[in-house]
Design brief:
Helix content of chain A: over 70%
InterPro entries (chain A): Cyt_c_oxase-like_su1_sf, Cyt_C_Oxase_1
Order of helices and strands of chain A: HHHHHHHHHHHHHH
GO molecular function (chain A): cytochrome-c oxidase activity; heme binding
Oligomer: heterodimer
Number of helices of chain B: 11
Protein name (chain A): Nitric oxide reductase NorB subunit apoprotein
CATH topology of the largest domain in chain B: Cytochrome Bc1 Complex, Chain D, domain 2
Number of domains of chain B: 2
Distance between the termini of chain B: 79 Å
Shape of chain A: globular
Strand content of chain A: under 5%
Strand content of chain B: under 5%
Organism (chain A): Nitrosospira multiformis
Number of strands of chain A: 0
Pfam family, one (chain A): COX1
Radius of gyration of chain A: 22 Å
Order of helices and strands of chain B: HHEEHHHHHHHEEHH
Chain lengths: ~475, ~270
């Protein structure tokens, strides 16, 4: 760590870890409601625990992205962050917004639009926080007068994420139109600009961890983001099946969704070959695990499990079943949760004191228990979903009676989710095990034990 | 490939996709009014949409297949259940389903009478959106049509033969809405409506009983009356009726032709 202001990242990651833990509490609570009966029915029914579970996910992943940006930008632009104070004010406002939203949901204060449940005043706070963040980052880059493609992709991804949140601020009288624009935010986030953020962070990690040539890595970063957008933008169509839009979205969705796994496979190959060339020799092997693991799990969860139900003739039967929960869990975890955990694993030895770069065995237990646990969870949702489609949609068994027959899958879900939660708890415990470095203790002359010389940036405008 | 070519690839891919997407968005807007019957979008329906959002319905149910996957899809619910049924259900869901049996229950949404009628109006408007015919077959909330009944026989409008009983049986599975969406013919299997197993025998007993105040004299008359005027005799149970009104839709007298009602009666009389 060369820049004192990079230590901002620690506090963003610390908040992200707390919210991640809380997300799992509400996840396990929701899963137990599948088994029922529910003693909390009148105070905290499923709709509330689920809304809190998904909102916490979005908030902690975005907190992680912002923390990662505060870590990456100083190194790439070779400059301290423009305003450390603004970064902390932003974190406090963001956290207060998140906590208010959760408490609000518990007491029925909700906009009731899936994933965009934030009531309007909180949506405004989100916009303000995003503007503060982008201002701080752009001023840093402007003052430094240099930027790299890696940070450019990362920051552009975050800026576009803020822009795509804007349609969520508008009220639509027509429910179909409201669905149409809800996906501009949610889909174009997760299968568009968030992948851009993931790509930027991945390129940063790969350059640091493998020592690969920056020119080569950034060239391929362009290609991958190009492929992601080619498939992802028109791939929005797979959310436009059966919701009252023109019929041509069906074939468009089928075709471009089929291309999405190709882009994701490209990203995994990009990571694997970069690391293989370096012989996987970086001392922070835990960060290597998370980085490669994230790309592999993205191909599985987002690519393959997504493609499992985006073909229109398949989706006709699987639409609105637990098959979607299968894909949702695998995709968000592989692409976003794991990317944030990768960047945390890479930066933690720099941000905290008394920590070995190599990591410890708890770190590996945390990795494998989470990966295996999440794999088991996707299998549980997947098998439950297939059972549901067959019994409910093909045979015509009632919805509630079908769910009763899926109890064994829900037991499997809770068992595997518990393995996952233990892995996550180990990660969180490991994170807080040692104190953060005090800012005064950061020695700007100390170099990180990376394989690549850091900060090999393009001059302004040439990237 | 150079970095420059890589960047060019990125820019071209993004621009082409974005322009195509925005073009299709404009065209979709042109078509939304027709596809969603926007002319029928009354203030009551829009208020119903707000009730739907404020009650966070979507984080358990699905609507147009989107939502929480924890409770039944409601896209076509107003075509499967009449307004009296849905009104009574929304007032107190625990009257209709047992948490003991199904291990989940809808919490009471605590809606006013106005809010209930608004949200039903909203759901009815959603049910008429042209959504490419999804779901491909009706999604039933509870119960089963499986045990010993008509598994694997798709609904059909075609007459299977000239025999009125056979025609009635086909109609039972296809009349809009299909009778078997709410009634099973398996003993003890009560869906939204009571089972029709042993109907003819039960009908004879009902017309002879002092509780019966209708005009039917025979079991066939009783069955016909139940189809055309469902509220004349109410099957006991809070899940079947409220305020002396049956939850069964009362549109069959006008929506079915007399010949169709004859064949339905002929078929239902065979359920002894």
């Amino acid at each position: 760590m060369r820049y004192r202001s990079q230590s901002i990242a620690y506090w963003y990651f610390a908040i992200a870890m707390c919210l991640f833990g809380l997300q799992l509490v509400f996840g396990l609570l929701s899963a137990s409601k599948y088994l029922g009966p529910d003693p909390l029915l009148d105070f905290l029914p499923f709709d509330k625990t689920k809304a809190i579970h998904t909102n916490l996910l979005i908030v902690w992943v975005l907190t992680g992205f912002m923390g990662a940006t505060y870590y990456v930008v100083p190194e790439e632009s070779r400059s301290e962050i423009y305003s450390v104070k603004l970064a902390y004010i932003q974190l406090v406002a963001w956290t207060l917004m998140g906590v208010t939203a959760i408490v609000g949901y518990m007491f029925g204060w909700t906009a009731g639009n899936k994933m965009l449940e934030q009531p309007f005043p909180l949506k405004i706070v989100i916009v303000i926080v995003m503007l503060m963040f982008l201002y701080n980052i752009l001023m840093t880059i402007k003052r430094a007068g240099r930027w790299t493609v890696t940070e450019g992709v990362l920051v552009a991804g975050l800026a576009l994420a803020a822009v795509l949140y804007l349609p969520a601020l508008i009220e639509y009288e027509n429910y179909t139109v409201s669905i149409f624009y809800r996906w501009w935010t949610i889909h174009l986030w997760v299968e568009g600009v968030w992948e851009m953020i993931q790509g930027g962070l991945l390129a940063y990690l790969l350059i640091r961890l493998s020592g690969a040539d920056r020119e080569v890595m950034e060239k391929w970063l362009y290609v991958i983001v190009g492929l992601v957008f080619m498939a992802g933008i028109l791939g929005t169509a797979h959310h436009y099946y059966w919701v009252g839009v023109p019929h041509y979205w069906l074939p468009i969705g089928g075709f471009f969704s089929a291309l999405e796994p190709v882009a994701l496979l490209g990203m995994a190959m990009y990571a694997y070959f970069a690391m293989r060339r370096a012989g996987f020799s970086h001392p922070n092997s835990l960060a290597v695990h998370w980085t490669i693991g994230s790309t592999v799990f993205t191909v599985f969860g987002a690519g393959l499990l997504g493609f499992a139900h985006t073909w229109p003739s398949v989706n006709k039967w699987t639409h609105g079943t637990l098959i979607t929960a299968m894909h949702g869990h695998g995709a968000f975890y592989g692409a976003y949760a794991m990317t944030v955990l990768a960047i945390i694993s890479y930066t933690l030895p720099h941000l905290t004191s008394d920590r070995k770069v190599e990591g410890n065995s708890i770190g590996y237990w945390a990795f494998w228990m989470q990966v295996m646990g999440m794999f088991g969870m996707t299998l549980s949702f997947g098998t439950a979903g297939i059972g549901q489609v067959y019994l409910e949609r093909i045979l015509g068994l009632g919805y509630l009676d079908t769910q009763l027959k899926l109890q064994v899958h829900f037991l499997m879900l809770i068992a595997t989710a518990s393995v996952f939660a233990i892995g996550a708890a180990l990660f969180i415990w490991n994170f807080f095990r040692t104190a953060p470095k005090s800012v005064a203790a950061i020695d700007p002359s100390a170099s990180a034990p990376d394989l690549a010389p850091a900060g090999h940036a393009s001059s302004a405008g040439s990237g | 490939m150079t970095k420059r070519q890589g960047r060019l690839f990125f820019i071209i891919c993004t621009l082409v996709s974005a322009i195509a997407f925005i073009g299709l968005t404009f065209d979709s807007h042109r078509r939304f009014p027709g596809l969603t019957n926007e002319d029928k979008l009354t203030p009551e329906i829009i208020r119903g949409k707000d009730v739907w959002h404020n009650s966070n319905c979507i984080n358990c149910h699905t609507l147009l297949g989107e939502g929480g996957y924890y409770a039944p899809d409601l896209t076509k619910v107003t075509q499967q259940r009449g307004t009296p049924y849905l009104t009574a259900f929304l007032k107190d869901p625990s009257q209709f389903y047992s948490e003991e049996k199904h291990r989940r229950l809808m919490p009471n949404p605590k809606l006013s009478d106005t809010e209930i009628s608004e949200v039903i109006a909203f759901l009815d408007w959603v049910g008429h959106i042209d959504n490419q015919g999804w779901p491909p077959r009706p999604i039933i909330v509870s119960g089963t049509t499986i045990p010993g009944t008509d598994v694997g026989q798709p609904p059909t409008h075609a007459s299977v033969s000239t025999d009125p009983v056979a025609q009635g049986e086909a109609l039972f599975r296809s009349s809009p809405p299909a009778c078997n969406a709410c009634h099973s013919i398996a003993p003890g299997v009560n869906l939204a409506g009571p089972t029709l197993a042993g109907l003819a025998t039960r009908a004879t007993a009902i017309v002879a009983s002092p509780e019966y105040k209708g005009e039917a004299k025979t079991s066939a008359d009783y069955i016909r009356e139940s189809i055309t005027h469902p509220s004349v005799y109410l099957v006991p149970g809070a899940m079947y009726s409220a305020n002396n009104q049956s939850f069964m839709p009362d549109n069959f007298a006008t929506d079915l032709e007399p010949r169709q009602i004859d064949s339905l009666v002929a078929y239902l009389e065979t359920l002894k």
